[in-house]
Design a protein that fits this description.
binds iron/sulfur cluster; 330 residues; 2 domains; alpha/beta; 12 strands; TIM Barrel; binds S-adenosylmethionine; globular
Amino acid sequence: MKKRYYCKRLNETLNFDALKVFYCCATRTGPSIDIPSPKRVKDIIKKRNSLIRMLDEGKIPAECKDCFDLHEQENPKPLLISRFSKLPKANLIIVKHFKQCDCACIYCCEQYLSKRKIVLKSKKSDYYDLLPIIEELYRQDIIDKKELDVHFQGGNVSVLDEFEPLVDIFIKNGVKRVEIATNGIKYLPKIAQIAGKTFVDVNISIDSGCRETFKKIKTVDKFDDVIENLKKYVKLPILLRLKYILVRGVNDNIEELTKYIELMHEIGIKNSELMIDQCDSEFVSEGEFKIPDYYYDLFKFYKEKCAQYNIEANIWEYVKEILDKGSFFK
Ligand SMILES: C[S@@+](CC[C@H](N)C(=O)[O-])C[C@H]1O[C@@H](n2cnc3c(N)ncnc32)[C@H](O)[C@@H]1O
Ligand code: SF4
Ligand code: SF4
């Protein structure tokens, strides 16, 4: 019998990046469409529908070849019997169509587009306005209003002029969950406004436990501002998570990690994440990048110290796999 496929990510995601819209989170290799505009919304939808149909008919788009998210349909009958069959609506929107930021982290994956320029005042995205596109997607009934999860990434939303209007349109349409990744340097009053109206997940990348190390990593002297803002956010009915990326030679030591965990304890933050710097994997030219032995001690220490303070110590599945394997995947 002919094989048929599906991809959960493709069925769910619209990922607005600076130069393209991707149809999944795999921003390097996944299928995409070039620079969008409200006029092109029908092209965005058309391509999405044709990708879903292709898989359902057993054809694998070149960009999806060998992807571990590709699965065989168990149902032998095609789901999309005719070209009028209803296709799944998108329930995950990723907002990263802007790269401006009010700091310039030494590890940042997005810096090649922002060219390490620090932006202090809100401005338009250098690429395109997303608000009219979202309005059009709602008009075209492509967004699953009941189940929608929105992730703000970027750049940093604190210097995006469209941030508040975008949040407003999602809230108006009954968004289920809003996740905001931010450096925490500027207080975002919108978070307090929407707290309690929907599930709000705020993830703050601080990467340090003191002013000196913060400055080395973020390249701005704003540690104290972040602390003030964390003290306000912690009082809100939101999920507040603090994040630490291990940057080799800068914050990859027990002393700094201890300060970071004690800081969370002092402020009352109950959720944390420890991550490996992705740059370590991307700039390996030959062979594999081996995880240094002392990283295992750091991760062990992190789990134990967080447990002592009753803080949830999260480690991404993908990081766990890398640690188990002992090296970054090439
Ligand atoms: C590019 S940032 C944008 C959102 C926000 N400015 C922030 O820093 O949280 C999105 C996420 O990517 C993560 N990130 C950026 N560069 C990374 C790297 N080299 N390794 C691992 N994570 C990285 C950040 O920690 C953040 O959680
Ligand atoms: S199969 Fe992989 S590359 Fe293709 S849409 Fe799904 S996640 Fe993206
Ligand atoms: S705060 Fe976020 S967007 Fe800004 S430089 Fe750091 S990781 Fe990049």
